[in-house]
Amino acid sequence: MIKNIFTKLVTLFLFFAALAVFITSFFTTIYYDMNVDVDFPHYKAESISHLAISMVAVFLLAFFFYKKKMFESSKAFILFALFFCSAYCLFLIISIKPLPVSDAAIIDEILEEFKAGDYSALTAAGGYLNIWPFQMGYVLFAQIMDALFGHGNYFAWNIAQLLSILLTVYLLYNITWELFEDKEICGIVALLSMGMLFFYNYVTFIYGDILSMGPQTLALYLTVLYVKREKLLYAILVAPVMALSILIKTNCEIALIAVIMIIIFSSGKEISGNSNGYRSYELLRRILVHIGLSFLIIATVLIAKNAVDSHYLKVSGLKEMPGGSPSVSHIAMGLQESELEDGWYNRYNYDVFAENDFNTEKTRQAAIQNIRERLIYFKENPGYAIKFMARKFLTQWADPVCISTHNLDLVSRHVENPTTMMYYIVFGHGSIIIRWIMNVYMSVCYLCVLACLGSLLLRKEIPWSVMLLLILIFGGICFHQFWEGSSRYAMRYYVYWTPYAAFGMKTILEKFCKIGVK
Description:
Blueprint: H1 2-27, E1 28-31, E2 42-45, H2 48-67, H3 74-96, H4 102-115, H5 120-123, H6 128-131, H7 136-149, H8 154-180, H9 183-193, H10 197-200, H11 208-229, H12 232-248, H13 253-265, H14 276-316, H15 327-334, H16 348-355, H17 360-380, H18 382-397, H19 404-412, H20 420-426, H21 429-458, H22 464-482, H23 487-494, H24 498-514
Antiparallel strand pairs: 1-2
Helix pairs in contact: 1-21, 1-22, 2-21, 2-24, 3-8, 3-9, 8-9, 8-11, 8-24, 9-24, 11-12, 11-13, 11-22, 12-14, 13-14, 13-22, 15-16, 15-17, 16-17, 17-18, 21-24, 22-23
């Protein structure tokens, strides 16, 4: 009873969220000006007729494959999808020859300083890592990459990111099978994965976003396997894989929460047995095992973090890791108006830390006061609050490119010996084509997601394995509604909609057949 209420509420929330994104993406779109350093999304009216025609073309192609039963050869589709992904990403890498930008560029310089024994970026007040010590896991990963491939070998970084993307795509295909056990849905998800250009464009963006996606998706896949098969090895393997993803990108902690929730909640699923006594014993045993596994996963993550911190304390001579800019400063920034886009990055979390002499506790109090003031203003102006929250949600989740075209612009600006093809892809007509593909993909994806969520709501019960990615997406929406806003952060959840979009597309294609479409 409680399970059904919880799963239906989460699914219903996601249905309305997806509906809002679909409507917004159908009537408007978001674009970014070229040669601008900051993330500044702009709205413009959609070409509805062109979008509708393009969507119909996509569904006609899918319907042709469906009628010919080609989706049943799902392995052929996933092989072609992986080939397409590799070709597209390598095309971007070779054409653009990207360099690290923004935070990644700063960390790239810090790696050289660390190599020379200079740890001031961590030890000195105002140093980059002194402000953002949560980056230490990524810094360690970067040092390992430098040791293996040499400093400045950005091609090696791009290939590592390509491998993470390929792993993610392949695991999404396997997760889809575990969720729905339907070859046709697996074939459709492979087809849909070829449209995730918003994801593939990030192969050129050297940072933890893409590198963490592979291990995070593997952890999610292992969790689904454990919930369905209850083999301890799967849950045990989740621990180190999840720890790795979190060290590279702390945003993966939302996935950790989703994994723990599913493991614990799945303790109470149906138990076979001939007596109530047996069922009670088995239920208690299962609950204890699942709680123990949850503690193991959390402990592994904490141990990994402490190991990284201990390493840098030893080499830097610090007695304890700096507190850095507190988390509440990100929340305060996420609730503020901005000259760019409300709730997005505006330097507040850095500036308030500097204004308070890089003192973590004083900054925390200042940020809490700022949050309190904003919440009071929201309470006194409910119309403004609703508009603010709705706009922040939609600028993050209804952005078809997820800032990926803006980041292609950023990584292309200071490239030595730029190629003609780079100008075509990033600044020329190629960029228009790529943006349009992503524009159509978002509307198709969310229409299919709506069909899937509507179908799940009509079910008597939704399996816990099916709920895992939905809970992750739900957590991502809630978290980034208050945290620093960015559609780059939404990108990692957008990817996980594809299994549900594939289910929804098959549902729509079946309806076409039932109404007599030939």
